[in-house]
Design goal:
The chain is of the alpha/beta class. The chain is 46% helix and 15% strand. The strands form five sheets. Strands 3-4-2-5-13-1-14 form a seven-stranded parallel sheet, with helices on both faces. The longest helix has 41 residues. 46% of the residues are buried.
Length: 654
């Protein structure tokens, strides 16, 4: 039985084993309820205030006394754990180190956020309030106590950037930090994970964990020590266990990316399978999209009508082998129909370096290495005239829900968590705390508008951008897809308006584009990737002109994503404004279609009422889509749990 005292901190050793992780049947701790949440928040505020005083005390120490005081603090943390007094002292030391090495004196709100993280909670902290430094303070305190820390970032660029920028702070505290490289062998990754604090993406951590599990790591907490004592050769795992994870942009990782299972696989060349799928695609092209096929875009599925079944049977009559099995040929052609009609270039994928790369439908980023299953990836590659990749066999799989439930301690930060607090509480056992702004927001939200089609919307958006840029305002235009961003870019170019485009085709220039987006008169078109994790810094002229204006032309699936984009404007109490323009979708399955029909009868209504109806036409389908995605995540978690139960009879414990 492992220790359950709140002060006991998980770290590799005789007490927790060589590879600490929560058992598969040990769910995340249950939510503690409002009655416990309020006193805990009060304690976090007291800790943050006391840490402010400790910061001044540490800053006053002469250089020769700093090292001795730090060693005494580390011994205290390892002996007593995170008592309120020790926690405040450690936060003060980390804050003083940040002031000395980074020229950033942590604000009271950042100290509060760090205290909330160390209490295993999620903190909603508005965009631009300093989440990166708050996470660094919490990571430093945990590492001083000997706990291996994983700081989870949205992408490899942010992991490398944050590790490099914060390295002086960690070095001043006697800690080591590293970023997990995107591609490296086991020895290189093992060396990285020996650092006290490791910055890495969620996918890299999860796949490293799956590889360790396949090698047997973590199944018995004492097996490694027993083997070492017996003189048996032991292949060291890559990770040092799952002790503490601090997640930046927690909603994106715990919710949005959790809709896709994580599958570890190996390639299996199979020319016959590729030939079969090529035939399926050829047959799918001969079926009439309306008469023979019924498309279901929301579910990304296709089915055959009775006429389509007969047509397919006639087309396959001259083919032998599997084509004479009705169910087999139906499933193959339906897969080909999905790839042919429902997966679109620059919306669901891009072609780069002769290969198909999937686009993350939430962030708009390319996801190299991720593939569609059951032959769908091969179909899309064939559709684009590319050499398809080898087929893959699944070796192991998990989901972000199950992976992050295995950490002994888990916490995270994001600017948009509140809407999903019930799901986060139910799945991960994590309550959400809202961190107050350190300065009152000056961002203005303008009335929403609704357009009949994408063309008029993009024309109007280009005109709006030109008008604002002429007055010295920087403008950020948010779009749904690569295709939409290019369509809007074409209209801006036609007006002779200089601009930058940030999408999956230009992701290598992301940092430079975002860095310039706050200059006076600068116009930036972006997909949902929109440089999350990178500040848009206003220059003096842009600040004087009224700050950044964000114009959303997106059909975001949740209110959280709306707030993420709007949060780019008006940071740190700066001026700024935002507005949302949307259009009717062409898909008959779009729930907003009825609302758009209603809006055509409202031209005589007052502008305020029309704006409310436009907002409703956007909010209602958003609510429905959020419920659908939450149900998808619940089903994925249910499948994972069911799979674990089936394997439990034949697998070692843990």
């Amino acid at each position: 039985m492992l220790p359950t005292l709140a002060r006991t901190l998980p770290r590799p050793g005789p007490l927790w084993g060589s590879y600490p992780l929560r058992a598969a049947d040990d769910r995340a701790p249950a939510w503690r309820g409002l009655a416990a949440l309020r006193p805990a928040l009060a304690q976090a505020r007291r800790t943050a205030r006391r840490a402010g005083a400790e910061t001044r005390a540490w800053s006053a120490l002469p250089p020769h006394a700093w090292g001795a005081a730090l060693q005494a603090l580390r011994r205290r943390l390892r002996r007593d754990g995170w008592t309120p007094a020790a926690l405040a002292q450690a936060l003060g030391a980390a804050a003083a180190g940040a002031a000395a090495t980074l020229a950033q004196t942590p604000r009271q709100t950042q100290l509060l956020a760090a205290a909330v993280l160390l209490d295993q909670r999620l903190a909603e902290m508005a965009t631009g309030e300093g989440k990166t430094l708050a996470i660094a303070l919490a990571a430093a305190v945990a590492a001083l106590a000997g706990v291996p820390v994983h700081v989870v970032t949205a992408n490899d660029y942010l992991a490398a950037r944050d590790a490099a920028q914060l390295a002086p702070l960690f070095r001043a505290l006697g800690l080591t930090v590293a970023a997990r490289p995107g591609a490296a062998d086991d020895d290189a990754r093992r060396a990285v994970y020996r650092a006290d604090i490791v910055y890495a993406t969620a996918k890299d951590l999860a796949f490293d964990f799956l590889r360790d599990r396949l090698a047997g790591a973590g199944r018995d907490p004492y097996a490694g020590y027993a083997a070492a004592l017996g003189g048996s050769p032991v292949q060291a795992p890559v990770l040092r266990g799952l002790c503490l994870a601090l997640i930046d942009e927690a909603d994106s990782i715990l919710l949005d990316e959790a809709e896709v299972p994580l599958i570890l696989s190996h390639s299996r060349p199979q020319a016959a399978r590729r030939a079969f799928l090529w035939q399926a695609l050829a047959l799918a092209r001969q079926l009439h999209p309306l008469r023979d096929v019924v498309l279901h875009p929301a579910e990304r599925q296709a089915s055959l009508t009775p006429d389509g079944e007969q047509r397919l049977a006639a087309l396959a009559n001259g083919l032998g082998g599997p084509w004479q099995r009705p169910r087999y040929r139906r499933e193959a052609v339906q897969t080909a129909l999905v790839g042919l009609h429902l997966l679109r270039l620059h919306e669901h994928y891009v072609v780069r370096d002769g290969a198909v790369e999937l686009l993350d439908e939430v962030t708009g980023r390319a996801a190299p290495g991720r593939v569609w299953s059951r032959g769908l990836h091969t179909v899309v590659a064939l559709k684009e005239g590319l050499h398809p990749p080898d087929e893959t066999d699944t070796v192991a799989r998990t989901s972000f829900q199950r992976f992050f439930q295995r950490y002994w301690r888990l916490a995270g930060l994001s600017g948009t968590l509140w809407e999903a607090r019930a799901e986060l509480r139910a799945v991960y056992g994590l309550p959400v705390c809202r961190i107050p702004l350190h300065q009152r927001s000056r961002r203005r939200t303008l009335p929403a508008r609704r357009f009949a089609a994408a063309g008029p919307l993009f024309d109007a958006a280009a005109g709006r951008a030109a008008e604002l840029a002429a007055h010295g305002r920087p403008v950020l235009l948010g779009t749904d897809s690569v295709a939409d961003s290019q369509a809007l870019s074409t209209r801006l170019a036609a007006r002779g308006l200089p601009h930058q485009v940030l999408n999956a085709l230009h992701d290598a220039d992301e940092a430079a584009i975002v860095a310039a987006a706050g200059r006076a008169g600068c116009v930036t078109v972006a997909t949902r990737m929109a440089g999350r994790g990178t500040d848009i810094v206003l220059d003096a002229a842009a600040h004087a002109a009224g700050g950044l204006h964000v114009l959303s032309c997106q059909h975001n699936p949740s209110r959280r994503l709306d707030r993420q984009l709007a949060g780019r404007a008006g940071r740190h109490g700066e001026p700024g404004s935002t507005e949302a323009w949307t259009c009717a979708r062409l898909s008959p399955q779009d729930p907003a279609a009825g609302a758009d029909t209603l809006l055509t009868w409202t031209h005589s209504l007052p502008p305020s009422l029309r704006a409310w109806l436009a907002w409703s036409a956007h909010a209602v389908p958003q609510w429905l889509e959020s419920r659908r995605r939450a149900a998808l995540r619940r089903e994925l978690l249910r499948q994972d749990l069911e799979g674990e139960r089936r394997l439990a009879f034949g697998a070692p414990p843990g």
